[in-house]
Specification:
Blueprint lengths: L1 E3 L4 H6 L10 H10 L1 H4 L5 H8 L2 E4 L2 E8 L2 E8 H61 L2 H24 L5 H22 L1 H22 L5 H30 L6 H12 L1
Antiparallel strand pairs: 1-4, 2-3, 3-4
Helix pairs in contact: 6-7, 6-8, 7-8, 7-9, 8-9, 8-10, 9-10
């Protein structure tokens, strides 16, 4: 768009108060180049009347004369650019609409994912609760209770022996002595009575299963320690030295791997 202000040569050409016959040769030549249809019009009233409502089009460009605060201003408007601007505005509005729709769809998808995540979490907690209940039932079963009772009898015997034989040492040293005594008894039981040995080792087997679940994140290790921390501490004292010795003798570092994982975890807690 071009603005032509008063007193410029271009303004004089577009001034409707000037008769075509009174214009200079330069003005007529410029006017003929800009508005051939005006120059060809009759001089006088028809020309002036036509100039007061000037809106000529030449090769897609429109010229209009307006008056602002006493100044005559000629506007040069490129219709092609106007059309392109309108198309650009429409495209921008459509893009904004598409973005709004996409945003709503995204929020809907987020809500769906949040709902699904909540549902999955609830299912995971329910599955963990079922696993813990199953473990508790196994731990409190008649067979396991009988094994635990027999094992506690052995624990009391060993404790009395160490307290008498090593009364002058610290509690830490007594615990180490008890571990050695348990290992000796288990080794003797392994060599002489496999059935009784197997019953005692059911404790290790139980915690082997629990340790597998904990290490592979079926159940958080901290939950296992909270539930079975005391039993694990005692089981580590009873079976720890014996299991490590069997690993060396059998050259099998994976023997009761998950049981020992829990023993080490409860020792660090």
């Amino acid at each position: 768009m071009t603005l032509l202000f008063a007193n410029s040569p271009q303004h004089r050409i577009l001034d409707p108060t000037l008769d075509i016959c009174k214009r200079s040769r330069e003005e007529k030549r410029l006017l003929a180049a800009l508005f051939p249809s005006v120059v060809d019009s009759e001089p006088g009233g028809d020309y002036k009347k036509g100039r007061q409502n000037l809106a000529l089009t030449d090769f897609g460009t429109t010229y209009r004369m307006i008056s602002v605060l006493g100044y005559n201003i000629a506007l040069e408007i490129d219709l092609v650019n106007v059309i392109l601007a309108v198309i650009a505005l429409l495209a921008l509005a459509y893009a904004k609409y598409q973005i709004s729709i996409a945003r709503k769809d995204s929020l809907t998808q987020i809500n769906i994912l949040e709902t699904q995540a909540t549902s999955v979490r609830a299912q995971m907690l329910e599955a963990r609760a079922r696993i813990l209940l199953d473990l508790d039932m196994r731990w409190e079963s008649q067979s396991m209770l009988a094994t635990r009772t027999a094992l506690l009898k052995t624990v009391q015997e060993v404790k009395n022996e160490i307290d008498i034989a090593w009364a002058h040492v610290s509690e830490r040293e007594k615990r180490e002595k008890r571990g050695e005594a348990y290992a000796e008894r288990l080794k003797k039981l392994h060599d002489t009575n496999l059935e009784a040995y197997g019953k005692f080792m059911e404790i290790c087997g139980f915690f082997e299963t629990v340790g597998y679940m904990a290490k592979h994140d079926y159940i958080p290790t901290k939950d296992i320690i909270e539930l079975y921390g005391g039993a694990l501490h005692l089981a580590g004292e009873i079976f720890g030295i014996h299991v490590r010795k069997r690993r060396e003798d059998e050259r099998d570092e994976r023997l009761f791997e998950y049981f020992m994982y829990l023993v080490d975890a409860v020792g660090r807690s």
